[in-house]
Please model this.
Amino acid sequence: MALLMVSALVLTFLIAPVHGEGFLAGQSRHAASLRSEDLQAAVVSVLGHGSDQNRSAITQALQPIWQAMPKNRYDNIEWRQLRYLTHRYFMQTKSFMIRGLEPMHEVSESNRGSAKILSQNAPALAETLLHGHRAEYGFSLEDATSLTAALEQLTFDSETELLEKVYRHERFMSSEYLSRNELQRLVRAYVIFWMLGEDESSASVLAKNASLTEELLPNWKLIESMAHGTVQGMEYSRQRSPKLGDARVAWKDQYTFKDAHEVVGNIAQNFASFWENQCQQIKTDLIKLDKTGTGRVRLADFYGANLDGEWRFGESEAYLRELGALDESSSWRGKQVVIPNYLQGASNCIVSRPNYLVCCINECEDILGEVEAAAGAPVAELTAIMALIANMSGYDDIPVKLDTSQRAQLTRIAETHGGMVPLHGRLFAQWLHYVFPRECPFPHKIGASTASTPTEFGENYVASKEEVTKHAKDAKSVQQPVTGELGEGEDVQWMSQWSEEEELLTDYSKHLRAPWELPFGLRGLAAGFGGAGAVFVAMLWASGTIALPTKSGDFQGFDQYSKSHFV
Model:
């Protein structure tokens, strides 16, 4: 009798939602479609109808990451995932860190983490994205493409105000035609103002003094040459493929405000690629100080290099900690600067604008992208990841060799998640850091670091002479291990920064263990209720009422996930 009562209760839960879901499914899809139309309308207000070719290129760039993301029941992604997707697009294509989309920001109901430029320049689009029923239906790939295209256009348009200011500084009218020499002068001044950001008084002085600019701005001659080359590139492009109105540029040597805007926009879009040689030089200098190949430089050696004339390594200990570039976990090695975190830190972002930073290229993007392309799914099997990584080589062209501790940690990650590895979890990002310690940044827990620029941090961003001298003396008093080798006892400490706390972008439960892979005990429970019972047990699992074991005979309920949460 008890069994019949439970069976009836189960069928009540099962049968009633089945008809309702079937009835409501069409309405839900229709509502989701209407929400998408609302978003597209808001985007059109920013873009006009835009370029289909540009949207196609954006979709193509987003596709591999999109394919590897968990989807909701409408085959869409959630807001946190959309932020992540958009952030990675801009880092991959332009090395832009869009302010407001920084991955270290904690997203909550009170702070949704929208791009700053959206709230200021496209409030209708921001409202459509962050409010209403979008939280339920999520965002499609088309939505992601539209948002990305809108952000690209907004960042391009945002330079208009600065360009107008530089026009006035150079005593030009924005309505007049400029000669080629005048345009070159204007662009030179613009790049100075663009790079110096909020320090407009210094920019004004340098724009009027070529010799002082060359003295104070690193590699200025190269930057100036690149700016002039961008003007020439626009001329060449218009001569080869002229459009209506281009004749005055190609033959009359006349340039409008719109032409100047196009030039400075192209400089912004391509500056990171141009500057990457300088980023690689910083990395090379740090690697020389990395005696053990762990992607870490003792803080003492870091400051020692500064004392020996390396002007770049002068950030204060407090600022390095704020950036997430300081590893303080090793009792053996002491405080260390983490190379990829330092390179990706805001202090090395060469340009700081109100809406974005132009940073060093994140070399880990290619590595993660290769894993995503191979998996084509939100999760991957342990053996598949190991096989893929084993066939990779680092940026020094040396094949990757997974040591015992690295294999053990990846196995532990898989065990934590029911035998699979979520590709966008903090633990996997942490593992990639230890496999590629000089390319992949160490992923701190959300909120533990910031992207504060030196100006935002304050005048104490630079280490004092006393601080540098003190640490440099420490460097000379400690015997260093042979280059490429860990010192005695260090082999057990090089992963001392590892933490077990997982952070996921969204709910991965349906990807970590399929309902038909229920453990024996639950299969028996399902069999007792027949086919309806199997569905019911699967529903309990999917809702989190019961948890699946990571291995046979290991049923731990919720305890297994006590250190895992969504970000």
